[in-house]
Specification:
Length: about 150
């Protein structure tokens, strides 16, 4: 079994994935736009039958994408393109290979975002900090972890 995060960027999905590709090395596995939904073109297809309701004017927005960051797969969408993403109650945990890489990731994620807890040394990592990126996603960044979580 696998559990994978699915993020709804409400209109900024492609921008977010591009940012993660540039700063975290994300690799896009696939990306489908609302206009590419094969069921949407069928005559008489309902929203339920087509698997989504397409917000007006969102044909070029991302209906579904899958990408990896390191060994982890994430999925995402523009959702209803409301412009108001809500990632409350969840953070993504990023364990870097070393302290310097952790600082680099933390600084990149914080650019245009908001630091929630500055990078510092803790009992569980040589470097740990919490930041909300410019898309509203909260991250916990660790570096120098002796016993990396599985």
């Amino acid at each position: 079994m696998q559990v994978q995060p699915y993020l709804f960027f409400e209109g900024r999905c492609e921008e977010a994935v591009t940012f993660y590709r540039e700063h975290l090395g994300a690799q896009v596995l696939m990306m489908m736009r609302f206009r590419d939904n094969p069921d949407a073109s069928k005559e008489g297809a309902s929203e339920a039958a087509s698997g989504c309701s397409m917000p007006a004017g969102s044909e070029d927005k991302v209906m579904h994408t899958a990408f990896t960051i390191g060994d982890s797969m994430l999925m995402a969408s523009d959702g209803m393109c409301s412009g108001k993403p809500n990632f409350a109650g969840v953070s993504l945990s990023l364990t870097a290979n070393d302290e310097q890489q952790a600082e680099k990731y933390f600084n990149a994620l914080g650019n245009g975002g908001q630091v929630q807890m500055p990078m510092t040394q803790t009992f569980f990592a040589k470097r740990f900090g919490m930041v909300q990126d410019r898309f509203g996603v909260s991250w916990m960044v660790l570096g120098g972890v002796e016993n990396k979580p599985a």
